[in-house]
Design a protein that fits this description.
This protein has 187 residues and is of the alpha+beta class. The chain has 7 helices and 3 strands, in the order αααββααααβ. The protein has a 3-stranded antiparallel beta sheet with strand order 1-2-3, covered by helices on one side. The longest helix is centred in the N-terminal third of the chain and has 34 residues, at 25-58. It is elongated. The chain starts with 24 loop residues before the first helix and ends with a strand.
């Protein structure tokens, strides 16, 4: 028998079936754009859309009293009335009233500071003489508020009105004309 010649097997070079290698900058481009664009977009939306809409809906104006040194706390009509009567308002601070928020089992605190304004001649001395009683009234009033009460949009105005009536009942008459809430923080 004759030996058959061995078949020659031809090896073909392997074809590159994977295609071009993936990766590089093109794969990271969506992530990089997201990381760069999202904070910039959030800042722009907050500064130019949300804050102006909130200010318009609340009817507030930005007060720059610290920069200009002018008093912007009273509306123009009240300033004119104070000038006509010839009496300048005396302001007395009632600072740092800290209370536990009602219903929080002592886990939440409310810090508030007030400035009381009045135009009577002995206003400052009346406030200083009754300082402890006024602070006690403020603590009782604020301590009776729950988190839900404090989160309402009109909460500060309600607290201001309630304190105004209570302070005037203690001092006799209406010596306190306005209460400014200078600090109001819930923790």
């Amino acid at each position: 028998m004759a030996a058959q010649p061995a078949e020659k097997t031809e090896t073909k070079p392997a074809e590159n079936t994977a295609g071009p290698p993936s990766g590089g900058i093109k794969a990271w481009l969506p992530l990089i754009l997201t990381i760069v664009v999202t904070p910039a977009l959030a800042y722009a939306m907050t500064t130019y859309v949300l804050i102006p809409k909130l200010q318009n809906s609340l009817g507030t104006q930005t007060v720059q009293a610290r920069e200009t040194g002018e008093e912007h706390s009273a509306p123009t009509g009240e300033k004119a009335a104070a000038k006509e009567s010839g009496k300048a308002k005396t302001k007395v601070p009632l600072s740092k009233v800290v209370v536990n928020v009602s219903g929080s089992l002592g886990t939440r605190l409310l810090l508030a500071s007030f400035t009381l304004a009045g135009s009577s001649g002995d206003f400052k001395t009346r406030i200083e003489e009754n300082n402890d009683q006024l602070r006690d009234l403020a603590s009782s009033t604020l301590g009776s508020k729950t988190i839900a009460d404090l989160e309402k949009p009109e909460a500060r105005n309600l607290i201001r009105a309630e304190l105004l009536s209570q302070f005037n009942s203690v001092l006799g008459g209406n010596p306190v004309q306005e209460i400014y809430i200078t600090e109001f923080a819930i923790q």
